[in-house]
Amino acid sequence: MKVLLFGATGNIGAAIAEELVARGHEVTGVTRSGGTGAGSAVPLVAGDVADAEQVAELVRGHDAVASAVGPRIGADDDRTILLGATGGLVAGLRKAGVKRLVVLGGAGSLRTPDGTRVVDDPHFPELWKANALAQIEALGRYREVDDLDWTYISPAKLIEPGERTGAYRLSGDDLLVDADGRSRISIPDYAVAFVDQLEGGRALRTRVSVAY
């Protein structure tokens, strides 16, 4: 499968790139400059994910598009980056006639066992709140798209470096927790779930969440 991956050099994007390559896919990574990411697992090109014309040009000839685009926390305007990416991807894929899109999402809108959203917890880190709210808005916009085969994949409450075990659980809008009440996933195992969905997942035009 020929896959175009936006945000290929971030921590999660790089793990997704490695997983795709390990499974034999032909992957091209897209970054803002195209020249960063020494040691990247995939060749890189420059592109603006918020520019629908650029997205369409880059996407043509690919079977699927993956996005691991995310703002630098505390350094970028979360809403501008995330909603810009959402608009550019949707419009660009439509122009190019490519339907499959898998997107790195956020956990802030997941429902906790008491029925509230993760982001509404009074202990939710203030530093991450703008990102969470922007991700919630982006998910709302994807849910209005009925002509692309998109999947929005939310990680667990805690996603961090760790080992690749290949084990994970999937849910929908509910926060998954383990027997100790923790919600977590390693970055490599999130990448496994992400690529599983891209390859053959049946969760189309919906959100799934991933955790142990």
Can you walk me through this structure?
The chain has 212 residues and is α/β, with parallel strands linked by helices. The protein has a single domain, classed as Rossmann fold (3-Layer(aba) Sandwich). 33% of the residues lie in helices and 21% in strands. The chain is built from five helices and ten strands, in the order βαββαβαβαββββαβ. The strands form two sheets. An eight-stranded mixed β-sheet has the order 3-2-1-4-5-6-10-8, covered by helices on one side. Helix 2 packs across helix 3. The protein is globular, with a radius of gyration of 16 Å. The two termini are 28 Å apart. This is NAD(P)H-binding protein. Pfam families: NAD_binding_10 (PF13460).
CATH uppermost class: Alpha Beta
- CATH superfamily, by name, is NAD(P)-binding Rossmann-like Domain
Assembly state: single chain
Structural class of the helices, strands and pairings?
A: alpha/beta
For the biggest sheet, the summary is: 8 strands, mixed
Query: What general form does the structure show?
Result: globular
Order of helices and strands: EHEEHEHEHEEEEHE
Taking strands numbered 1, 2, ... along the chain, how are they ordered across the largest sheet?
3-2-1-4-5-6-10-8
Rg (CA only): 16 Å
CATH topology: Rossmann fold
What fraction of the residues are assigned to beta strands by DSSP?
15-25%
How many β-strand runs?
A: 10
Q: How many domains would you count in the coordinates?
A: 1
Mean pLDDT: 95
Helix content: 25-40%
Distance between the termini: 28 Å
The CATH architecture term is 3-Layer(aba) Sandwich
- Which stretches of 5+ consecutive residues score pLDDT under 50? none
The DSSP helix count reads 5
